[in-house]
Amino acid sequence: MARNGMCFSMVLFLLCFASAGIGNTVQLVQGQKTWCIAKPSTDESTLLGNLNYACSQVDCSVLQRGKPCFNPDNLISHASLAMNLYYESKGRNAWNCNFKNSALVVLTDPSYGGCVFA
């Protein structure tokens, strides 16, 4: 039950962050850790395109069945991890987390269980 509450809180935070940040630029403190994730409102076609693009540029083997980030086995989770791997590999610049305006830079670590977002 606590896990459901945590997931709901994360989704609520992301929705608030997304709506408050439309058209705005987030100013980060130098050296502050950030992650890139898919916007919750992104359609499946865009998520699949993002997943395929990111994985054509970086190693997404952690998403394979039996690996730490396979579960939950859903498109938004897999796309978010792939997008973050790409974002990290390119130096964590805001422009590397755009994905045609279907991504968010977040300050909260989205890692879960054994799946660590770098």
Automatic annotation (TrEMBL):
Domain X8: 34-117
A Pfam family of this chain: X8
Keywords in alphabetical order: Signal
GO cellular component, one term: plasmodesma
Cleavable signal peptide: 1-23
Methyltransferase is among the record's keywords: no
Highest rank taxon of the organism: Eukaryota
PANTHER family: BETA-1,3 GLUCANASE, CARBOHYDRATE-BINDING X8 DOMAIN SUPERFAMILY PROTEIN
Record's protein name: X8 domain-containing protein
Lineage: Eukaryota, Viridiplantae, Streptophyta, Embryophyta, Tracheophyta
